Amino acid sequence: MIADSIERSDDAGGWRVVHPPRSPPRTMPGNELERGRDAVDYVVTAGVRPPADISKLDPLQQEGVVSLLDHQLGRVEGVAGPDAEDIDVLDYRIEVGPDGASVMLAVDAPSLRAAETAAANVVQEVLADSPVLEHWTLTRSEVKITEDEFNESLAAAEQNAGGGSEETDPRLQAEIEEAFEQAEFLGAGSWERGSSEISGAERAQATEESETERWRARLRELSGKLRAFSGAAFGTAGADPRAEIAAGALVHAVSVVTDELFYDELALTVNDATADEAVGLLVLEELPLCYQHNYDARFTRSLLLSSALVATRLTGRQWRPPRCVAESLALRLFVNEARVVLEATELMSWSESEPLFEAFLDNANPDRAYEELFSVEVPGDESERIAGFDSEETERRLRERGLAFDQWFGISGEGDTGQHPYTG
Fold first, then answer.
1. Domains of the chain, each with CATH number or no CATH
2. Where are stretches of biased composition, namely Basic and acidic residues (predicted)?
3. pLDDT tens for residues 381-404?
4. Cβ neighbours of 367 (radius 10 Å)
5. Cα(361)–Cα(368) distance, rounded to whole angstroms?
């Protein structure tokens, strides 16, 4: 997981995001950081909007914004503020409409001000780090009051009432309205238990459970599109509901990976760069590091074509295993994204999904020689990496296995389907 930290900048007097060295990608955010003893859970809602020259976002653009924000926020684990304040980012949610997006961050902070400042700067930094979203602006950053603070403020107001205070504290009034909004969300029956009996954790759990069930229904609906395989392909016996959810996650992953490949292609084209020179790529970073210096915009377009062929066969009635390294890597990308989705929606942990998708890959792609590419040792320095990898011994060994970079799109075997001229 990439843990982004925010600290006070001595020269600017503000907050800034500091990126530590990269660790293995695509690990979802969690609550691994130790909670401070005086910390409180806050939900910060940050609104962002596109530049003025973009009137409305169409559905495809909305999906792209969700994908970009999700990838960047998925890298944020914790926040370090001034005075040794530790702020944990517990969870996040993204909602996008025609006019912009709302990012809701659940943070465990020592104060409301710390939560608001940290969350606002995290979102601003996320926008600045994305070439596509860098001109978007933060329109608001609002903290939803916690229940404990609401109860404390209410008790204080009742005590002050005896002193003849006639005016209602605007902050208290806002807290009361917020509490009733939360009560309305959870339902009248639960609110009747009394505010002291319903904790913020219970509210969060109810929201998470509702979101998880929505995802479960969505993935079950999508599972029928994976027509090339039955549930048995995931190594389960009988009508195992896990196989159905895994199949739906795989179909959903196809859309996500396709969107992200389009983003990577655009980023490389605009910057005239290769993957080893770029920052913030969504998919290409998951490919073998030994050939990163070859992943340019044209390669990304070729990989898109190969992934489209794999996706088409997944949804067809007859499966044909990958015919080249590029198709094998595309299938691997789909599987990894499916597992990320299952973990993020709390439908399956990473360890729970592993045996299902290992069984699936055994059925879908028995020849997994391409995995050797991920074990090629790559020196840390860029010049050493390229020079070291281009050694005759390494190149010869991979070429004998059909794994050299210029062999990735070469079709093996006979068949009715030819090779796309663009990848040839």
1. 5-144 (3.30.70), 149-198 (no CATH), 210-407 (no CATH)
2. 1-13
3. 555 545 445 577 888 889 999 999
4. 10
5. 9
